[in-house]
Structure formats: structure tokens, C-alpha cells
Amino acid sequence: MEKHRGWGQNVRFDIVTLFPDFFASPLLSGLLGKALARKIAQVHFVNPRDFTTDRHHKVDDEPYGGGVGMLMKPEPIFAAVESLPILNKREVLLMTPQGQPMCQKMFQELITYDQLVLICGHYEGVDERVLNVVTREVSLGDFVLTCGEIPALALLNGTIRLLPGTVGKAESLKAESFEAGLLDYPQYTRPAKFREWTVPDVLLSGNHGEIDRWRQEQQIQRTIDRRPDLYAKWLEQSPETDPETRC
What we know:
This protein is an alpha/beta fold. It folds into 2 domains: 3-160, SPOUT methyltransferase, trefoil knot domain (Alpha/beta knot, 3-Layer(aba) Sandwich), CATH 3.40.1280.10; 175-245, Orthogonal Bundle (Trp Operon Repressor, Chain A), CATH 1.10.1270. It has helices spanning 30-37, 74-82, 104-110, 149-160, 171-174, 201-204, 208-226, 228-237; strands spanning 3-4, 8-9, 11-16, 41-46, 60-61, 71-72, 90-101, 115-120, 136-139, 193-194, 197-198. The strands form 4 sheets. It has a 5-stranded parallel sheet, sandwiched between helices. Strands 1-2 form a two-stranded antiparallel ribbon. A hairpin with a 2-residue loop joins strand 10 and strand 11 (197-198). Helix 7 crosses helix 8 (228-237). The longest helix is centred in the last third of the chain and has 19 residues, at 208-226. The radius of gyration is 22 Å and the shape is elongated.
């Protein structure tokens, strides 16, 4: 595999899924499609159903002890994961609402890996013994979805877009929401006046120092208003910040 200077190898994603077609259109579209076409990352699919041994290719069964719904069986998942090549630095991630919530910091860490194996659950979840092949459980949020493919696609998008060469201007990644622990500042484009709404004068001033100060103030105030939990965390992690700029 080709290397990006300073970043190690391109990331190889192996998606363990019953529905590979779910990813077909998203992985061909937009920046994600261009990144994969340029081999900035690789995405491969493996279907646990291909590793079943019964004539019905059964991948789920009733839970021991009773209960509603079905669970994914461990044997097809283990066989699917064990069929994959093993690169030097690898994580095996299970998409589950019980996992660690995705965040920008997680994505920044994951792009340092050579290989990410994403297991997409279905039904009521997976047999607990699957956790013996998993190194990390990951969640899209505190809610339940019909399948693990949705969070897996979110993780793919969030990580691949950080790889060098995916986004045209790498500098734009540094000023995004969550990169500095704060939400992004408001942004405007032409026309300078649309109906009764005008672009703030400072953005038209050409004074880049004033613009930078305004943007930081807006980031802080927007985070206070919309995500006070994030603001509190930012304060804890930024003790050197001037109290006068903290709003």
C-alpha cells in the first residue's frame, strides 16, 4: 500500500455486514467516492452469511433464557473476521448502542490505524461471545437503530474525510466544529445582503486580526448557547484560556 508522509499507511476498512449493498451508493458519492477511487483508503466487505454451514444459511437464533427477538450467532461472525488479513495496527469495532459514543477525537485516533474491522449487528444484537474478537465497542449515540450499517457508514465518513488528500484544503479541517473543542463559527457567502439579513460588517472589513477574534468569540458563545456540556469540557481542558475570552 502507498504511504502518506507523516501518517503511515492508508487505512483498510473491513466491513462485516449482512447487507453490503447498503454501502454501494454512499461509497460512490461525493468526497468519499473520490477518496476511495484515489485509493486514499480501502473498503472491503465480508458477509457472515457466507460462512454458515446449514442449508438455510442461518445467522440468527433465539436467545437462551427467553426474550423478544433474535440474536446474531457467534460462529459466522468469528469466521468472517478470521477470514480477513491482519495488518500491523488493527482495531475490531462492534457497532452497538452500548459502545463508546463517536466523536471527533475518536476519528482522529482511528486514522492512525492500518486496519479497522467494523462489525454491523442486526436483530436484537449479537451473542455476547462475539466481544472476544472485538477490541472496541462504538456507538452513534444514545438511541437504537435497525442495523449497525448506519453507524458504520458514519464512522467511515468521519474517518476517511480526515485522511490527507480527501478534503481539498487540509486547513479547512482545523477550523471545524469539535476540532478545538468548540462548535464552528457562523459562516457567510455572497450576496452581502439577502432579503433583510446582512453579513456582519467585521467579515467585510478585511481586518484578519479582527475577523479571527470575532470568529473565536462566536465559537465560544455558540458553544455556550447550544452545547453547555461541551463548553464546560473545553474550560476544563483549556485552563490557560484568558477568562475574558470565555464569555
